[in-house]
Write a structure and sequence with these properties.
Elements: E1 2-6, E2 20-24, H1 28-38, H2 42-46, E3 57-61, E4 64-65, E5 81-86
Parallel strand pairs: 1-5
Antiparallel strand pairs: 1-2, 3-4, 3-5
């Protein structure tokens, strides 16, 4: 099952400047693990040392924030779109 993942501009240097990449998996956790195999170093920018999604990174499945779903256990299916969005701090 291939899922489209939108990569934010700050992380595109790790994906050879690709804005959208395909990843396999049935959960966000599997998708992130497989993305890191394809693009080493990506997961450490998204997750902390405990494997949790960093506070300043939001992940959406079809515009739904995974924090309001099942976090990394959120299931995905063919046709879903995942967006990785870094939080923007203002002042």
């Amino acid at each position: 099952m291939n899922i489209q993942v939108r990569i934010p501009a700050p992380l595109r240097k790790l994906t050879n400047d690709q804005e959208v990449v395909l990843a396999e998996g049935s959960t966000i956790d599997e998708i992130l693990t497989n993305l890191d195999k394809l693009f080493p170093g990506l997961i450490e920018r998204i997750c902390d040392e405990q494997g949790n999604v960093r506070r300043f990174v939001n992940i959406f499945v079809n515009d739904e924030d995974i924090r309001f779903l099942q976090e990394k256990a959120t299931t995905v299916k063919d046709g879903d779109e995942i967006s990785i969005v870094p939080a923007i701090a203002g002042g």
